[in-house]
Write a structure and sequence with these properties.
Length: about 500
Amino acid sequence: MMTITKSNYISCKQCEKLLWLEKYKPHVLDDKVTKQTAEGDAVGALARMYYQPNVTVKLDTVEHMAEQTRALIAAGENIICEATFCVDGLSCAVDILRIYRSGEAITGVDIIEVKATTSVKDHQVDDVAFQTYVLERDGYRVNRVILMYLNSNYVRQGGLDVYELFCQEDVTVRAKGCVMTAPLIEQAREVLAETAEPDHELSLNCERPYECPAKAYCRQCKGIPEQSVFSVSGMTAAKKYAFYAQGIVTLEDLCRRDELLTKQQAACVRGMRGPMGSAPSVSTENVRRFLDGLQFPLYHLDFETVQYAIPKYNGTTPYQQVPFQYSLHIMMSPTGPFIHKEYLADPDEDPRDKLVEQLYHDIPMDVMSMAYNTAFEKMVCRALATQYPEYAEHLRNIADNMVDLMIPFRNRWVSTPSMHGSYSIKAVLPALCGNDPSIDYHRLPVVHNGAEAMAIFADMADGRIPRDKFADIRKGLLMYCGLDTLAMVKVLQKLYELISQGRRQFK
């Protein structure tokens, strides 16, 4: 009999084809989507400290882990971590299993599942529903099913307090009430027994509860063009898939049904149509008004932040954005020279302490700063103002005087098909500035995007990278962050150039 694991079950719950691809065509899956961090393991290790004394099943094959579990139960252990069960072609490992006994008889068990999230999600209940089903098939009475998760209100002060760090929610009724558990298990068996690749329609399941690693492959199988309904920004995923279900897929389809689009969505579709590399369409009056509102010197600011599920620094909460780096390009005039300043924290220290002091000196009061999507930079500045009251007035002043370079592109005042319907700077930059090697992220030697910057700094801070690699990594981090603000300079200069050239307007 084919063994169905918890992972198989969860994949089948999201999409039958995903389950099949995981077994038969794993090479088509996007590893960037499936890649996991060490955060989950760290959270799990701390959760075990909550339940003491305990014993942990050693990592091995599922069969050997199940043997270890049976031996530990027989030896009288009452709290077992990674307790593993195999029965009737099903297998699962329980994060924390609590056993109740009367004399030598087991009267019941609690399933405690640990999640590195700050709230209980519906799909997490599916996870423990499968575990509950397996243990009950194996003859155990499941008393309680508990989801253990991070307390978003916990503020670290000194050493970690695991009893304050975690919250627990009893989901027994919901887990035992999942009537689809048994049918879904049989469905998973049928899918894995089929050798022919299943045909499955695109739907919201491609996005929920996780972004499907097979999404790009399945769209290719369906012949979805590069520019399609899925490329339209400012449109919810639900609306995109609803259009797709109605056969409204291409940009031409959308144009024929433009009464169903918002004004912004219609502008996005119009901007995407036309040959790649064509000159930008420019709403001259709006762009000129935006540029006329700028004040020089203009301070282009970009932060890089790191997030820890388990708060690493005093005064921080789970998943708080902690800035460790910034780049600052100061434009003296629209056509004049610029000055570059930067800061990168020592990974052995709380990165905020010296960063906020340096930022205080680098950006004066009452000057105009610029960011691309100011919501993030403003959030970082205001959070620092709360944490460092001696700099609060100055930091709030920076946030209050910040202008968003995204505005002309989000509002479709400047648009070109080469932006592929996106107004992110990673789309805008190559579309406007072409093949300028000075702003080519692909040429960077170490770090190429914000996620990589966050991950590599966390690895440095947590001792997962040898110290003899630090110099090269620091250089790579500085190059990446510096490019983010240089990119803003280049884009702004291009806006001035477009206005001076008098490009065509659109309504």
